[in-house]
Amino acid sequence: MTQLPKTPAALARHLGRVAREARHKAALTQAEAAERIGLATDVYGRLERGKMLPSLPTLLRLCRALALDANPLLGFSSSRPPAWLTLDAPAVDEPPAMRRLLRTLRQLKPRQLAALSRAASAMLPAPAASAPREARQRAH
């Protein structure tokens, strides 16, 4: 069995915890909440335990049934990004071509990455320390 990536798993746990709190606040059992949402009770139980993420239509029904805003359910209740959202935003001054190159580089195997690194280093201009030597050679 494959493991879920960390970000979706963390989101599922967060969503389940918030849904459980909202259900308790509404004084509903899992069976009652599941019925209002249109899910089987065991499926709703998995959702609350953070073992699954709902589809978008199910998420909307969940919000309606529990009178819950989707923002806190997804962790968007403060000015800071939610804990489950760990994706780094690209640097503002980073050009699109650089972002595309980085996405491609992340897919390379270590050996391919090492070879490309050597090729890129060879394309760079010579270090400044060698400039005086070149000037001396031209003077002769």
From TrEMBL:
SMART domains: HTH_XRE. It comes from the Bacteria. It holds the Pfam family HTH_31. Coiled coil: none annotated. GO terms for molecular function: DNA binding. Residues 20-73 form the HTH cro/C1-type domain. Keywords: DNA-binding. The keyword DNA-binding applies. The keyword Lyase does not apply. This is DNA-binding protein. It comes from Cystobacter fuscus (strain ATCC 25194 / DSM 2262 / NBRC 100088 / M29).
